[in-house]
Design goal:
single chain; two-stranded antiparallel sheet; 40% helix; seven-stranded mixed beta sheet; 212 residues; 8 helices
C-alpha cells in the first residue's frame, strides 16, 4: 500500500470526524523534541523544517510552543492536503506546507537552522529499490537544506544509535542521545526507538577559497 493511499484514507477520516490520524512514535516523541529545543534555548524564530510531515501535528505542537518559522514537506500530496486541513482547524496559518521529494529538494528548500525527522529516514531506508543509494541521497539533501552548525533531530525505530552515527558520519557530529522508552526482552534491555541530535559540521574553507 502506498503512503499516498494511507494519507488519502486519513484525509477522509479527518473530514468525517476531525481526527488527524496517528502520531508517529506517539505524543512523547513530540514532547521530547520540543523539550530539547527549549532546553537549548533555540530562538522561537529559528527556521524549522519537518521532513515528511505527514499530518503536520508536530508542526502544530511547535507552533503552540511559540515557534513561528515552520515548514513541513511531504512527497505525498494527500499528506499535505491532510496537514493543511489540520492547520486550518487549529488556526495556524503561519505554518508553510509543501509537496516536496526530500531526495530531490527544490532550490528554495535551504537555509534551515533545524531539521526534524520522525520516521521518514526509516521509510526511505526500507525502500526495496536501491535503499543504500537513497540513504546517501538523503544525507546529501540534508547537507543542502540544513545550515552549517544547524541541528538535525532524528527519531528512528529501525536503526540503533551506532548505525545512525555511521549513516550520518559525513558532515554531521552527534550532540546527544535523547532518552526513549526502554524495554526488556529475554533479560536484555534495549530501546525500541532511537532519538538523536546531530549538528551539521562547519564547512571547512577549501584551498580554492584561499586562491580568490
Amino acid at each position: 500500500m502506498s503512503w499516498d493511499a494511507a494519507y488519502e484514507r486519513e484525509l477522509q477520516t479527518f473530514q468525517d470526524i476531525g481526527d488527524a490520524g496517528e502520531i508517529w512514535f506517539g505524543e512523547e516523541s513530540m514532547v521530547r523534541i520540543i523539550r530539547w529545543l527549549e532546553k537549548q534555548k533555540v530562538p522561537l524564530d529559528s527556521s524549522v523544517l519537518d521532513i515528511g510531515t505527514g499530518n503536520g501535528v508536530l508542526l502544530i505542537e511547535l507552533a503552540k510552543s511559540g515557534y513561528v518559522n515552520l515548514t513541513g514537506i511531504d512527497y505525498s500530496p494527500s499528506a499535505i492536503q491532510l496537514s493543511e486541513k489540520v492547520r486550518e482547524k487549529e488556526g495556524m496559518s503561519n505554518i508553510k506546507l509543501k509537496v516536496e521529494d526530500f531526495l530531490a529538494p527544490s532550490a528554495e528548500l535551504s537555509g534551515f537552522e533545524i531539521c526534524i525527522d520522525k520516521g521518514t529516514f526509516d521509510a526511505i531506508s526500507l525502500n526495496p529499490d536501491n535503499a543504500v543509494g537513497k540513504r546517501k541521497e538523503y544525507v546529501r539533501s540534508l547537507c543542502s537544506v540544513l545550515k552549517p552548525e544547524g541541528f538535525f533531530l532524528i527519531t528512528s525505530c529501525n536503526w540503533t544509535k551506532e548505525e545512525l552515527l555511521n549513516e550520518f558520519r559525513e558532515g554531521f557530529e552527534i550532540l546527544e542521545e535523547l532518552p526513549t522508552p526502554k524495554f526488556c526482552f529475554g533479560g536484555r534491555i534495549g530501546n525500541s526507538v532511537t532519538a538523536l541530535v546531530f549538528q551539521r559540521k562547519k564547512v571547512k574553507p577549501s584551498i580554492l577559497d584561499k586562491l580568490d
